[in-house]
Specification:
Layout lengths: L15 H12 L4 H10 L6 H10 L4 H8 L2 H16 L7 E4 L2 E4 L4 H20 L4 H10 L2
Antiparallel strand pairs: 1-2
């Protein structure tokens, strides 16, 4: 199993790009999810000053955070993530893909469980029918 996170700051949210940038800058210090949690808990306070405060609160090296926040490579990665999401039909956040099947919006745990259990069942059937384990993900993504 793999969990892959991609940024997709939506253009109508004027603080989304800054939040995505702070997440990526914090990730360079191994604290992306701590930054995420701080920003999520304070989602109406996401100015650059707020983001700097959260970075300090979670113990980031502030010089490195500022440098990474302004690094063009971080901005390029966010743009690349966003283009990938859009190309795959993600027009809102959050959007999840489970073996290529899309699940949109904040969903309850049971919805994820239902979808994942169905995918496990289908994967087990493929393996039983002779599909090598290494090919199951690719085959599930290619099949509706």
């Amino acid at each position: 199993m793999a969990i892959i996170f991609k940024n997709q700051p939506l253009p109508f949210h004027d603080k989304a790009r800054g939040a995505a940038t702070a997440f990526m800058a914090a990730n360079r210090q191994g604290k992306a999810w701590e930054m995420h949690d701080k920003m999520f808990a304070n989602n109406t306070a996401l100015t650059r000053d707020d983001l700097d405060k959260y970075a300090k609160d979670i113990g980031l090296d502030m010089g490195k955070f500022a440098k990474d926040f302004d690094d063009p490579a971080v901005k390029e990665q966010i743009d690349s993530d966003s283009k990938l999401g859009t190309a795959n039909g993600a027009s809102g956040t959050p959007t999840f893909f489970i073996n290529g099947r899309q699940l949109v919006g904040a969903q309850p745990f049971d919805k994820f469980k239902e979808m994942i259990d169905a995918e496990i069942k289908k994967a087990d059937e493929l393996i039983k029918d002779g599909t090598p384990l290494a090919d199951v993900y690719k085959k599930r993504c290619a099949t509706p």
